[in-house]
Amino acid sequence: MATEQHSQEGVVKHRHRHEGPQKHIVVFIFSIVLTLIAFAAVAAGGVNPAFAVVLLLVMAVLQVFVQMGFWMHLKDRGHLIPIIFMIGGFFVAGTSIIMALYWVWWD
């Protein structure tokens, strides 16, 4: 969060508050919990395989958002261009995968 600091000339300087380690620790614990949930779903053995696959995909997507948002700092200002390029890359990769599957299973 930005705070305002007035100088003697009347110019407003914006200072960004330093992000402390508390948030990083919470996000790290959240990442570990997501990993443990995914591991437990597979290690349990009695879980329906379709449910396990869906659960693993959901955990993977959440991990991607956590990794990119907090560890790659994409939640901060000034990261619009990398975000746009990553969305473009996801679009190209997703389209390629869908077209490859369509091509393989074409009758």
From TrEMBL:
Subcellular location: Cell membrane
GO cellular component: cytochrome o ubiquinol oxidase complex; plasma membrane
InterPro entries hit by this protein: Cyt_c_oxidase_su4_prok (IPR005171), Cytochrome_c_oxidase_bac_sub4 (IPR050968)
Keyword field: Cell membrane, Membrane, Transmembrane, Transmembrane helix
Example GO biological process: electron transport coupled proton transport
Molecular-function GO terms, alphabetical: cytochrome bo3 ubiquinol oxidase activity; proton transmembrane transporter activity
Record field: transmembrane: 25-44, 50-71, 83-105
Membrane topology designation: Multi-pass membrane protein
Assigned protein family: Belongs to the cytochrome c oxidase bacterial subunit 4 family.
Listed name of the protein: Cytochrome C oxidase subunit IV
